[in-house]
């Protein structure tokens, strides 16, 4: 009896110690987040540093302190987990990007964005895969790697870091450039994850034309099905909120329902083996177009700031997280006796990232320019260089995919796998620090910014009254409601060339969509012009009737 009691007390003490250590770790991590926000604010006007780089540097410095304090045993407060990243951290960021994107800019450049984000990612993945197969075998690194590993490496390093890129670029200074890099970043992340999952789901030891057709068929199925699921989830939320008048009793329920249905769309996509990134992104776009206009004014303000704030905190969390995990002593210990090999592999991967991106940005930009009628719509060479440069950064998506492929529950016992993990960490750090630091000066050198024209007060007042969600915390968020009048003003001209025909067809699609949206979609799902409840008390508002402006 005494032995059992002492055993129980010792177990309780161990649990208490573990819980206390977890509480201490979380306190330190939250304090570091606060420090990142404060230091980021102080460096706001710095021409080189942005908040992502600040968080990364603070994470690395913290990792060094912890490494010294633990005498080389550990360097992080939390262990990097791809499940934590994909299930909890990434969805709010991607949703907010779709929820607060300028839809007009995004869809006007949709074909170019899909060219860069989908076709470009496939080209980039192919070049990186071919390169590592040829070079790694000559270096003697890829002896234990199979064809699936090589293809996975291509998908891992084809994933750009949209979070870091969006913090570097400024939407007001370069709207076309920002729209292309932003759209490509989201589609690229989704394409890379879909491609990575498709690679893992196939037996690639035997490759023939049927496997190839099945692979690409599965890829396009995931792409389309994920988009449709996101659209349906957004429409369902709009219909429920429009029909049930949830806001007349509680605005909290409106906000909670929007958040939960957005997250539910992501979880359903993952449950059905689709792309949660694409699903939650298009769910955000549909919610901003319909659902956001169906809620009360106070709920609009709440969602606008709540989604942006959550996204901002999680972005900072990710870079802090990656910075501390970069010094994971377990992985570096495996390659400590062969540092030259690790440096060589990292250099090869960085070179392939540079070459792979150049191989599709410039040719696809040329093809895109063939479809543009006016010079202002074309992508200039300077903008092409910036698009190529801004997409060179790699981040948490590449880290998460690398951990998924080359570790088991965050641990690895194979030297080759450890080399791939440390090389991924090196590429992430170097690309974020070097390319991220130089992107702002490069933009200012290639694209001198002219002061924006002043708007008339009447136009500004009209736009502010119909604004969709807009962020005051993150520069890439927000923007006024996509002007329908701008597209309506296009006169019908008979196209005389193929280029004019393609440009005219784009405007016709916009016109057909507006007609369909106004006559069919908005009467059912609400949207701009729908007034769910008058601005009165909940009891008085219960008797009000829907109104349309």
Automatic annotation (TrEMBL):
<keyword id="KW-0472">Membrane</keyword>
<dbReference type="InterPro" id="IPR018422">
    <property type="entry name" value="Cation/H_exchanger_CPA1"/>
</dbReference>
<dbReference type="GO" id="GO:0051453">
    <property type="term" value="P:regulation of intracellular pH"/>
</dbReference>
<dbReference type="GO" id="GO:0090333">
    <property type="term" value="P:regulation of stomatal closure"/>
</dbReference>
<feature type="transmembrane region" description="Helical">
    <location>
        <begin position="106"/>
        <end position="136"/>
    </location>
</feature>
<keyword id="KW-1133">Transmembrane helix</keyword>
<feature type="domain" description="Cation/H+ exchanger transmembrane">
    <location>
        <begin position="30"/>
        <end position="443"/>
    </location>
</feature>
<dbReference type="InterPro" id="IPR006153">
    <property type="entry name" value="Cation/H_exchanger_TM"/>
</dbReference>
<keyword id="KW-0630">Potassium</keyword>
<dbReference type="GO" id="GO:0098719">
    <property type="term" value="P:sodium ion import across plasma membrane"/>
</dbReference>
<keyword id="KW-0813">Transport</keyword>
<dbReference type="InterPro" id="IPR004709">
    <property type="entry name" value="NaH_exchanger"/>
</dbReference>
<feature type="transmembrane region" description="Helical">
    <location>
        <begin position="261"/>
        <end position="286"/>
    </location>
</feature>
<feature type="region of interest" description="Disordered">
    <location>
        <begin position="456"/>
        <end position="493"/>
    </location>
</feature>
<dbReference type="GO" id="GO:0015385">
    <property type="term" value="F:sodium:proton antiporter activity"/>
</dbReference>
<feature type="transmembrane region" description="Helical">
    <location>
        <begin position="344"/>
        <end position="364"/>
    </location>
</feature>
<dbReference type="GO" id="GO:0005886">
    <property type="term" value="C:plasma membrane"/>
</dbReference>
<keyword id="KW-0739">Sodium transport</keyword>
<feature type="transmembrane region" description="Helical">
    <location>
        <begin position="20"/>
        <end position="42"/>
    </location>
</feature>
<feature type="transmembrane region" description="Helical">
    <location>
        <begin position="48"/>
        <end position="68"/>
    </location>
</feature>
<keyword id="KW-0050">Antiport</keyword>
<feature type="transmembrane region" description="Helical">
    <location>
        <begin position="148"/>
        <end position="170"/>
    </location>
</feature>
<feature type="transmembrane region" description="Helical">
    <location>
        <begin position="418"/>
        <end position="438"/>
    </location>
</feature>
<feature type="transmembrane region" description="Helical">
    <location>
        <begin position="306"/>
        <end position="324"/>
    </location>
</feature>
<feature type="transmembrane region" description="Helical">
    <location>
        <begin position="385"/>
        <end position="406"/>
    </location>
</feature>
<keyword id="KW-0812">Transmembrane</keyword>
<feature type="transmembrane region" description="Helical">
    <location>
        <begin position="219"/>
        <end position="241"/>
    </location>
</feature>
<keyword id="KW-0406">Ion transport</keyword>
<protein>
    <recommendedName>
        <fullName>Sodium/hydrogen exchanger</fullName>
    </recommendedName>
</protein>
<dbReference type="Pfam" id="PF00999">
    <property type="entry name" value="Na_H_Exchanger"/>
</dbReference>
<feature type="compositionally biased region" description="Polar residues">
    <location>
        <begin position="458"/>
        <end position="470"/>
    </location>
</feature>
<keyword id="KW-0633">Potassium transport</keyword>
<comment type="similarity">
    <text>Belongs to the monovalent cation:proton antiporter 1 (CPA1) transporter (TC 2.A.36) family.</text>
</comment>
<keyword id="KW-0915">Sodium</keyword>
<feature type="transmembrane region" description="Helical">
    <location>
        <begin position="176"/>
        <end position="199"/>
    </location>
</feature>
<dbReference type="GO" id="GO:0015386">
    <property type="term" value="F:potassium:proton antiporter activity"/>
</dbReference>
């Amino acid at each position: 009896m005494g032995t059992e009691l002492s055993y129980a007390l010792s177990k309780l003490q161990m649990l208490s110690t573990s819980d206390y250590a977890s509480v201490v770790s979380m306190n330190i991590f939250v304090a570091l987040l606060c420090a990142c926000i404060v230091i980021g604010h102080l460096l706001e006007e710095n021409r080189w540093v942005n908040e992502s780089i600040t968080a990364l540097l603070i994470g690395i410095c913290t990792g060094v302190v912890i490494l010294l304090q633990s005498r080389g045993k550990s360097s992080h407060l939390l262990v990097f987990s791809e499940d934590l990243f994909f299930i909890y951290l990434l969805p709010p960021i991607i949703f907010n990007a779709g929820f607060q994107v300028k839809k007009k800019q995004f869809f006007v450049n949709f074909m170019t964005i899909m060219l860069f984000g989908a076709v470009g990612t496939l080209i980039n993945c192919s070049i990186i895969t071919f390169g590592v197969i040829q070079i790694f075998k000559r270096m003697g690194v890829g002896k234990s790697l199979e064809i699936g590993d090589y293809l996975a490496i291509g998908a891992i390093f084809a994933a750009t870091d949209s979070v870091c890129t969006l913090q570097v670029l400024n939407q007001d200074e370069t709207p076309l450039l920002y729209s292309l890099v932003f759209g490509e970043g989201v589609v690229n992340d989704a394409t890379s994850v879909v491609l990575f999952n498709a690679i893992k789901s196939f037996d690639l030891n035997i490759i023939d034309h049927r496997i190839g057709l099945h692979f690409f068929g599965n890829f396009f199925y995931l792409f389309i099905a994920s988009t449709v699921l996101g659209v349906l989830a957004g429409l369902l939320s709009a219909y429920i909120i429009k029909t049930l008048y949830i806001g007349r009793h509680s605005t909290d329920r409106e906000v909670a329902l929007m958040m939960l249905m957005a997250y539910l769309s992501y979880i359903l996509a993952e449950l059905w083996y689709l792309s949660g990134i694409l699903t939650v992104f298009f769910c955000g776009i549909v919610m901003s177009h319909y659902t956001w206009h169906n809620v009360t004014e106070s709920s609009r303000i709440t969602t606008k700031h709540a989604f942006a704030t959550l996204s901002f905190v999680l972005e900072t969390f990710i870079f802090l997280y990656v910075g501390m995990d970069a010094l994971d002593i377990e992985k570096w210990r495996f390659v400590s006796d062969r540092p030259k090999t690790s440096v060589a592999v990292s250099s090869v991967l960085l070179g392939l990232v540079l070459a792979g991106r150049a191989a599709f940005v410039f040719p696809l930009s040329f093809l895109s320019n063939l479809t543009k009628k006016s010079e202002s719509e074309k992508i200039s060479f300077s903008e092409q260089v910036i698009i190529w440069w801004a997409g060179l950064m790699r981040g948490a998506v590449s880290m998460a995919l690398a951990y998924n492929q080359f570790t088991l529950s965050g641990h690895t016992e194979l030297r080759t796998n450890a080399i791939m993990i440390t090389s991924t960490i090196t590429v992430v750090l170097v690309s974020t620090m070097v390319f991220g630091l130089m992107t702002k000066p490069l933009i200012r050198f290639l694209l001198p910014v002219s002061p924006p024209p002043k708007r008339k007060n009447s136009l500004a007042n009209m736009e502010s009254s119909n604004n969709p969600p807009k962020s005051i915390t993150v520069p890439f968020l927000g923007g006024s409601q996509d002007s329908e009048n701008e597209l309506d003003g296009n006169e019908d001209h008979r196209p005389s060339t193929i280029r004019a025909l393609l440009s005219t067809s784009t405007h016709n699609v916009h016109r057909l969509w507006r007609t369909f949206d106004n006559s069919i979609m908005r009467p059912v799902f609400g949207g701009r012009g729908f007034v769910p409840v008058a601005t009165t008390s909940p009891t008085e508002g219960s008797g009000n009737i829907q109104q349309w402006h």
